[in-house]
Amino acid sequence: MRLSEQIQTADWKKEKHAPVIEAPETVKAGEAFTVKVGLGKEIAHPNTTEHHISWISLYFKPEGSNFTHQVGHFEFWGHGESTSGPNKGPVYAEPQVDVTVKLNESGTLFAMAFCNIHGLWESSKEIKVS
Ligand code: FE
Which fold has domain 3-129? Predict the structure, then answer.
């Protein structure tokens, strides 16, 4: 059995755990652009002390390469925890991030999200460098 076989995927329009990657279709080599990655664009995922998205990682695999690079790892720590009890806290981190990226080669962006109850979920988006 392999960990990669446990990673689920689905259409983010129908499945609240599938991460959404928003980025341009084409970018210029070496020029900064924004990648927006998160959950809940169509269907909100719960954000409670008991059930939440713990982290999202973003990766990039250049076309024709065997190797995948990690772009960033984003942890979400505020889920309503409090001395008054669960879900009574003052802060909630929503599972959404913007990251500024530069690419020198075309390839594929991958996002992986971890729900503390429902495990690992991935999605991908191709991006061309002109
Ligand atoms: Fe979940």
Answer: Immunoglobulin-like (2.60.40)
